[in-house]
Hints:
Number of strands of chain A: 3
Oligomer: homodimer
Strand content of chain A: 5-15%
CATH architecture of chain A: Orthogonal Bundle
Shape of chain A: globular
Radius of gyration of chain A: 14 Å
Distance between the termini of chain A: 37 Å
Number of helices of chain A: 7
CATH class of chain A: Mainly Alpha
Amino acid sequence: MHSIAVHSEEVFQALADETRLRIVRLMVVEAHERACLCELVDSLLEPSYKLSRHLAILRRAGLLASHKEGRWVYHRLVTKPAYLKQLYATVKALPDPRKIYRADLKRFHDRMRLREDGRCQVGIQSDAFRSETG
Amino acid sequence: MHSIAVHSEEVFQALADETRLRIVRLMVVEAHERACLCELVDSLLEPSYKLSRHLAILRRAGLLASHKEGRWVYHRLVTKPAYLKQLYATVKALPDPRKIYRADLKRFHDRMRLREDGRCQVGIQSDAFRSETG
DNA sequence: TGCATAGTTGCACTATAGTGCAACTGTTAA
DNA sequence: TTAACAGTTGCACTATAGTGCAACTATGCA
Lengths: 134, 134
């Protein structure tokens, strides 16, 4: 379901984009919780087509594994080979001067409360999350 | 002499290029040894104008500090803020399937033996290093 | 003083990355 | 069986990154 990057720089390339870094930071802080696209859309407040493309890039770089479950596709951070854990530790250690990740994480928590039996049950709720958190 | 990246992804962007990753890997393996441009030219076997540009990018990203000494400019990895050390640990942990860093490092060692009193004394010797190591 | 050389940079060129729109696939539930 | 919706993707567009050449600056030494 995922491939190992042949060139090491691809791993850094994968994180060299604000949107992708937001995705990874969200998932790394949450102890490698899985998330589906609509949950990410509501957390980052970005259009689904945009996040879908960035998720594909992360997947191709070997950082993300995805699997379909009904009409939802769940994404999870890959932790092998071992240097990926080291990479996530770096991501975790990054500063957050503009409080972007803090805000993303708050929305993510709120959104995850809508789950039932650990599964996503609702679709995109962006409008609600947008008005709720400014 | 160096600035802190405002956006976290700039740090990863800095390493998202093979040449820059080769530079950083060389310097990180050598316990943060300093190196001048001509020593890097002989180690990586890349033209000086190319490396000079990549060094400038690393400097702007806050990973490298440079200072002039006579006609040589010495470069050294920056280790603050703390998450940079974490980043270097990741770089150190990367695999080297194509043995590129291994070869770079060998030439770097050979080249560093030409120093006197810890200073570079000779200019670009690429031809010698090229023929020596294939 | 003038030449050799360590290092930098302007310019032109090419390749690739990120974006938005809109059309598309696939799955669930009425 | 069909409507709604989670998710993906082709297309056109724009911006930016990396490269090579050649000209440039700055320093040390004959």
